[in-house]
Amino acid sequence: MKRVLLVEDNAANRKLLGDHLRRAGHEVREVDTADKGIAVALAEPFDLVVMDIQLPGTDGLAATRILRASPVTRGIPILAVTAHAMRGDEKRILAAGCDAYVAKPIAYKEFLAAVSHLLATPAVGGTDR
Ligand code: MN
Question: What is the CATH number of domain 3-120?
């Protein structure tokens, strides 16, 4: 079992993504803002962050940069989920420090494959230490 932090402001999406992660056997911590996500990621160990990019206030890209700047959270893989399926966005998302991204509407097989792939890579800040 891995610990996944899910940052998503939309309650329906958060429940769907959380349910899929839990069905895949993971423990999921859900938050609805980037600021809560950053605070929780600094306080508790996680193996993966699933980060919505469009968030009210601090957005997912800014939050990713903050997580990457801290030695506590620097090594945690970050999977972006984004409604931006526009050309150039992948570059922007990866440049901010996300390891991969899945575009909405989420194809769940693709989502869980990306989750498995990122969890297979040992995380510096993971819970298996
Ligand atoms: Mn959103």
Answer: 3.40.50.2300
69-79 residue pLDDT tens: 999 999 999 99
In whole angstroms, what is the distance from residue 5 CA to residue 45 CA? 9
| DSSP secondary structure string for all residues of 49-71 | EEEES--SSS-HHHHHHHHHHST
Roughly what angle, to the nearest 10 degrees, separates helices 108-120 and 11-23? Answer: 60
50 CA distance to ligand 1 centroid (A)? 12
Could you tell me the distance, in angstroms and rounded to a whole number, from the CA of residue 26 to the centre of ligand 1? 22
- Per-residue pLDDT tens digits for 83-103: 866 677 888 999 999 999 999
In the numeric block, which tokens belong to residue 97? 């420090």
For residue 73, the tally of other CB atoms under 10 A from its CB is 22
